[in-house]
Design goal:
Layout (H helix, E strand, L loop, with lengths): L15 E6 L11 E16 L7 H13 L1 E8 L8 H19 L6 E5 L9 H10 L7 H5 L8 E9 L2 E10 L12 E6 L5 H13 L16 E6 L14 H23 L7 E9 L2 H13 L1 H8 L5 H10 L10 E4 L2 E5 L2 E2 L4 H7 L4 E7 L5 E8 L3 H8 L4
Parallel strand pairs: 3-4, 7-8, 9-13
Antiparallel strand pairs: 1-2, 2-3, 2-8, 5-6, 6-7, 9-14, 10-11, 10-13, 11-12
Helix pairs in contact: 2-3, 5-6
Length: 400
C-alpha cells in the first residue's frame, strides 16, 4: 500500500447505530451484550476461524453472509462463547438472529450473530431475550466495550478518505487478548463504512487485506473456536458503487481498509493477556512475500523470543534460531539482526554491542526486530507481544 493515512477521532460512518448493555452473562460487572445496525442493508464480507470446532454463531454468520454478501445488523455478546454446545447452541444462535430481525423488522437473512467467552457454556436465553428488548439506538462506543473479555481497553480505529469527491469513513473495532494466532481469525472484528462496494468484491478485498494484517498477529499460538471479522458497507456516503478492482478509487478504499485492519491488529497484539510490550518484526530481502510473512510471524510467536523481550534480554540467538527453524530460503552466511535500533548480528556473526544499553533499549512499550534474510527482495511483517507471568496467571484461572 503506497497511500498513507492518519487516524481520526472515533466516529461512525453515516447510517450506523449501536448499543451495549450489561445483562449479567459473566461473573464480572461489565457491558456484555449489544448490537451494531446499519439503517439500510449493506454489502457484507467475512473471514472466519479455521479451528475445526467452529462455534454456532460463527457458522451461522458465515452461512448468512455467503448467501448474498449482505447484512444489516449483528447481535453480539461476551462472557459466553456458545461453542461446543451442540444442537441447542445452534438453535440458540438462530433464536438470537430471529429476535433481532423481529426487533428491527428486517429479514433474518440480514442478521449476523457473534459470541465470545467461555467455551462449553450455553447461552441463558431468558437473559438474551430480555436484553434484546432493552437495546436502543445510540451513536457512542458502547458496543465496542460489550465484546471485551480480558481486554484491558476497547480497540477501535477510524480513517476518512475521499472517493469520487466525497468523504468516506471506515471505522472498525475489535476484541482480542488471548487465544490469538489467526488463520483467520482468533478474535472478533467489525468494520463499518459508508462507501458503496459490490459484496463479492468486498469479500475479495477483505480476504486479501486480512492476510497482511490480522493473519500476521500472534499472542500465544492458540486459535479460538468462535472468531471472525465482518465488514459492512452501506453506501450512505453517496459515492458510486465500486464494482471492480483496479480503479484509483478502489485502490484508495482498499488502502483505507488495510489501514483500519492493521491498526486493530496492532492494538490486539499490544493488549495480549498480561502483555507489557508490543513486538513488531520486519523481515527484509525474503525469497517471496509468503516466506517473509512466515519468518516474521515465527519470530513474534516464539516463546523463547517473547520471554527474552519480557526480560529485556538481548539474546539474538533466539531470533536467529527461530529463522533457521522455518523452511524459508535464508542466506545462512549473511543474515542481519537489529533490535530497537541496535545491530546485533551482521553476516550471521555477532557484532560487539553494549549489553546494558541493548537491554535498556528493550524497556520501551514497543520492541522492533528487523531481520534481513539476504535471500530475495520481498518483505514480511508481523506483530506479537511479550510473554509474562501475568499471562500464566490469567489463563490458569480463566474458568475458575
Amino acid at each position: 500500500m503506497t497511500q498513507q493515512f492518519e487516524a481520526v477521532s472515533f466516529q461512525w460512518p453515516k447510517g450506523y447505530y449501536n448499543d451495549g448493555i450489561e445483562i449479567g452473562l459473566g461473573q464480572v460487572d461489565k457491558l456484555d451484550f449489544g448490537y451494531l445496525v446499519s439503517e439500510v442493508p449493506a454489502s457484507a464480507a467475512g473471514t472466519y476461524t479455521t479451528n475445526q470446532f467452529q462455534a454456532a454463531p460463527t457458522k451461522l454468520t458465515k452461512n448468512t453472509i455467503n448467501v448474498a454478501h449482505q447484512l444489516q445488523a449483528v447481535v453480539l455478546n461476551s462472557a459466553i462463547a456458545n461453542s461446543c454446545t451442540g444442537k441447542q447452541g445452534e438453535a440458540d444462535a438462530l433464536t438470537e438472529q430471529a429476535l433481532l430481525a423481529d426487533k428491527l423488522d428486517i429479514d433474518k437473512a440480514l442478521v449476523g450473530v457473534a459470541s465470545t467467552g467461555l467455551i462449553g457454556a450455553p447461552l441463558p436465553m431468558a437473559k438474551i431475550e430480555a436484553g434484546m428488548a432493552q437495546l436502543t439506538p445510540h451513536h457512542g462506543d458502547a458496543v465496542t466495550k460489550a465484546v471485551m473479555t480480558t481486554d484491558k481497553k476497547p480497540k477501535h480505529a477510524c480513517v476518512q478518505l475521499e472517493l469520487a469527491g466525497k468523504t468516506v469513513t471506515i471505522t472498525g473495532f475489535a476484541k482480542g487478548s488471548g487465544m490469538i494466532h489467526p488463520k483467520m481469525a482468533t478474535m472478533l472484528g467489525f468494520v463499518t463504512t459508508d462507501a458503496a462496494i459490490d459484496g463479492e468484491l468486498l469479500q475479495q478485498t477483505l480476504s486479501a487485506e486480512v492476510d497482511t494484517t490480522f493473519n500476521q498477529i500472534t499472542v500465544d499460538g492458540d486459535t479460538s473456536t468462535n472468531d471472525m471479522v465482518v465488514v459492512m458497507a452501506n453506501g450512505q456516503a453517496g459515492t458510486p458503487e465500486l464494482t471492480a478492482a483496479g480503479s484509483a478509487d478502489y485502490d484508495t478504499f482498499a488502502a483505507g481498509l488495510h489501514y483500519v485492519l492493521g491498526e486493530l491488529a496492532k492494538q490486539i497484539a499490544a493488549d495480549g493477556e498480561g502483555a507489557t510490550k508490543l513486538v513488531e518484526c520486519n523481515v527484509a530481502n525474503a525469497f517471496n512475500e509468503k516466506e517473509g510473512q512466515q519468518v516474521a510471524k515465527a519470530i513474534v510467536g516464539s516463546s523463547l523470543v517473547k520471554t527474552a523481550i519480557f526480560g529485556q534480554d538481548p539474546n539474538w540467538g533466539r531470533i536467529l534460531s527461530t529463522v533457521g527453524a522455518t523452511n524459508a530460503h535464508v542466506d545462512t552466511d549473511h543474515v542481519t539482526i537489529e533490535v530497537n535500533g541496535i545491530q546485533m548480528v551482521k553476516d550471521s556473526i555477532a557484532l560487539p554491542f553494549d549489553e546494558e544499553q541493548a537491554s535498556n533499549a528493550m524497556g520501551t512499550d514497543k520492541v522492533t526486530i528487523n531481520v534481513d534474510l539476504n535471500a530475495g527482495n520481498k518483505t514480511g511483517q508481523a506483530w506479537g507481544c511479550d510473554l509474562t507471568y501475568e499471562y500464566v496467571k490469567i489463563n490458569a484461572t480463566y474458568r475458575t
